[in-house]
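Minutes, project huddle
Topic: does the predicted pose make sense with nicotinamide-adenine-dinucleotide bound?
PN asked that the exact inputs be recorded in the minutes so nobody has to dig through chat later. Recorded below.
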Amino acid sequence: MSNNVKVHSGKKRAKRVGNISTNTDLTGQTAMVTGASSGLGVRFAQVLTAAGARVIITARREKKLAELEQEINRQGGEAHSFALDVTDLDKLPAFFDTLREKNLMPNILVNNAGMNVVKPALDYTPDDYRQVLDTNLTAPFFLANEFARHHIEQGSAARIINIASVGGHNVLPGLTPYCTSKSGIIMMTRGLAREWARSEVNVNAICPGYIETEINDFWWQTDGGKKQIASWPRRRLAGKEDLDGALLLLAGPHGSGMTGSTISVDDGQYI
Ligand code: NAD
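Predicted holo structure (tokens), as shared on screen:
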């Protein structure tokens, strides 16, 4: 091994906030997570905190956000919560102005907020369709724009991590608009990475497999849900913690050469 290569040595460097420990060092960085009131967004905020980042947590449910903010701050991290409906596109420039004014401008953006309307395609209304695409595809585009605009102007390094899905690569029956949005965000990731390649703004995506959260918890106790789990090679749902490695890679120093990449983390569900 070259003397110039530094490998984190495990125990000595591992940091721990709450019950999460990590060797990635994000000290001095500020990470913003959308949809941080439940599920994966909560985990992402906790993991980024454990790595030493200050976190900006945003969502619509202010009470849940306040609880997470208190928990992180009580455990020695630094969280700031803001109510934000990501589909309020006209409000996004002012939202980032507020962050700048408060000296809270993030240099890591996790586009996590997402939703689904579970219906057969033939039952979809234009409003259902718009809601899914507006939340999962249009909002991350404009959030990425407002975030990147700042960093391109400043010439500063920044990371965008888009949360796509295995549904971006695979047909998930009955979830066609959702899969359409997730397939779209994978291409958007590549397109923005290409457009901003001469800046220091990296744009990447993670495609999680099925993990039990509010977005799908109605399903797993049904016969259909149990059958689906039994069809996967490992016959189990993935865990929220399974995404920690990909998140920290894309947010941290080892991900500096990655842009336009999509990482699948599905516990082998779609091999
Ligand atoms: P979740 O329902 O617990 O979390 C989604 C969050 O997004 C919620 O807090 C919700 O309130 C928020 N949100 C929805 N619309 C919003 C809006 N307009 N403005 C602000 N916030 C909004 O589900 P999750 O599983 O944690 O989902 C997080 C992301 O992961 C989503 O993008 C989802 O598509 C993706 N994903 C989840 C799975 C899974 O199996 N859980 C798999 C692949 C991808």
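Observations noted during the meeting:
- The pocket of nicotinamide-adenine-dinucleotide is lined by residues 34-35, 37-41, 59-60, 85-87, 112-115, 135, 163, 165, 208, 210-211, 213-216 (CB under 6 Å).
- Residues 6-13 have pLDDT under 50 and may be disordered.
No decisions taken; revisit at the next huddle.
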